[in-house]
Structures are given as structure tokens and as C-alpha cells.
Design a protein that fits this description.
alpha/beta, Arc Repressor Mutant, subunit A, Nucleotidyltransferase, domain 5, 3 domains, five-stranded mixed β-sheet, globular, binds zinc ion
Length: 403
Amino acid sequence: MRPLQPHALRVATRGTSREINRRIALNLIRLHQPISRADLARLMGTRRGAVSLLVGELIQRGAVFEGATGEATRGRKPTFLYIDSRKRCVVAIDIRPTRTFVLVTDLVGQQLASVTSFPTERDPKRFVATLAKRVRAVLLENKDLGRCLGVGVVVPGMVDTEAGKVLLAPNLAWRDLSLRDPIAKALGLPVQIENSGKACALAQLWATRGAQAPSNFVYLTVSDGLGVGIVLGGELVRGQHNIAGEFGHVPLNIDGPRCGCGASGCWEAYVSNLATLSRYFGRELGDRSGPSNISLTVPDLIARARGGDGKALAAILSTGRYLGLGLGSLVNAIDPSLVYIGGEITTAWDLIEDTVRAALAERALTPSAGATPIVIVPPEQYPRLRGAAALVAAPSFAKEVVA
Ligand SMILES: [Zn+2]
């Protein structure tokens, strides 16, 4: 999928299809709603009559509706156009190695019901059966939300989106696993799957508005693992084999802790939630021996640190330092205009920011690269679930670039 770059839009001329013009109109309505036909015509740089024809078709298709009459001092009062997200919903799924989260949103990614979760089963058949049962239950409980247009799924691993396959999810030991079609079959709904870091980056790209929208950025999602999405020149980087951007598996230290991918010392093995918790308990990552404190979470650990637990604070600060050191390599390789970071650890940003920035500045090759802005995406915005929702909602707005 090539997302539209709203700031680079031009109205299509002869030879470009009507469908593309409809998509441009739809995307502009989404960005500027509520908007009058006259303003839409101005934004598209075309005649009002041509726009009215396009809008008529969009209304007929149920993509757009006319809302409240606007204020006009004289003459005919304009009616405003809105994206019609009524009576239609999307199910978003965030698969993490420990738990899987489910959220129902509207077509613009707004949360419509509370988030639910269940433990992730490693056996793919049992996982799909449980997932289908949970999704059916959520849709049944929320019947008033209307027709479900599809299910977006983010996966903690590398994905071939076209084939609908998980290539490798190290922390679930899923390899060459067909996931999209079994879920679609079980639910009878269209399903899109994507890597979690890439989905977050796509959703960010889709949601960013205006001419100042960044076209070179990196999105880090720190959870049970570390997902990375890279956008360059306004496009998500996938690479030849769908593994581009896997900085989580670039080593910080080849003699470091064992990573879920089988290698040692990967960045992920230093900064993931599981790595932070292992550090607190003085254990090797992946070590299941000894008393289990598996129920402790990173938010619990942050609460302990704020409550005066020095060991908890030290564990969090170490994660901050490793986060910054890895960011240094990433900034040297990609040189983005900014870095988004999502995940529970960001709720301790006031505690770790200085440490992260100092480590980044230490490794970055120039002072300006060392000062690359970092933007925190709070967990309460459910960035991974919004990324999953965008997989279904975005394609109707964002297809090929037309400029
Ligand atoms: Zn690894």
C-alpha cells in the first residue's frame, strides 16, 4: 500500500481515472471535515461542478454524508460533507507473545468499545480458534456498532503482507505461518496482517496532517519485543524480503543476553519489557527457573521506582541507556527527522529522558543527529491497536500516490 501524501496532492487531469479523483476527494474530506463543496473544489483546484459530481458518487456509495447546514451571512447556506463512519466498524488485534488485545474502532480509528485481552496461545490452530471466539463475542456485545468491515492484525514479527504469512515471530516461535487466511475463514471477514512496528508507522503516516507532515521518521514500539517501522520519502520501507527495519535484532553487544531470535545481544534483548523485568530480577532473559514473578509488569516496575525502590529505578534507567545507545546506531544509519516511541516504558519518560538523550548524543555521529527529536506516543492512545485498525480503514483513503 502506498499511502497518499496529502501535502503533495494535485487534482488528476485527463488520462487519470475517475476512481483516483474520488479517492483524492475522499482523503481531503477526511482531513478537512466538515468541509463544503466549494472549499473542496478550492483544495482540489478544480471546478465546483466537477466536485459536485464526485461528491454525489461518494454519497451514493455511502462513503460520505451531508451534515448540518453551515453559517453563511448571505446567499445559499452551504451543507457540510463528512466521512460516513456510522454503522460500520473495524476490529483491531494486537498479538503480543504474552497476551493478545482486541479493540473495536470506527473507520477513522476512534475507539468504540473497551479493550479486551486474552493470553496468547503458541499453538497457531488453538490461537486462531480462541481469537475467532473472542472477536465474535466482542462483535455480538457491540451489535449496535453496525457492520464490521474487516479485521486488522499486528504481529510481533516479520510479515509477508501480500501472502498473509508470518515469516518469523521469534518470541512465539512462529515461522512461515499462514495466519491471515485461517482468521478470515474462521470469522468470515476480510483480514489484513502487518508487522507491529510497520503498522504503527503506517498509522502515523496516515494520521499526520498538513504540509509539515514528516516524510522521514522512525517508529519504535517497545513491548514484549521491540518493533521498528521506518518511513523514508513518505513511504514505509519493506525491503526485498519484508525484513527491512528490524533494528531490534541488530546486536548492541555480541556477547550480550540471548534473544528470542537465537542470536546474542540484540537491541531487543536489552530494551524489551521482558528484558527490563529480567534485569530487575537479576535473571538471564528467557530464564524460566527459580521463583516466577511473571505477573509483574513494566507499569508495576515503574510504580515501584516512583515509590522509592532503587533496584526498580536502576532497571528502568538501564533500559533508558540501552534505548539511547541503540537509537544512536539507528540515527546514524537512517538519519530520520524524528523518532516516535510507543510502549509502557514511555510512561517513565520523565525518569529516563535525560539518560536516553545522553546515550543517543554519545553515539550519534554529529551533534545535530544526536539532537534528533523524540516524540512519545502514550500507551493510553493504544498505538499498536490503532495501527491494526488503520490496516483496514486506511486503504479506502490511501492508495497510490497521484501527483
Ligand atoms: Zn534478536
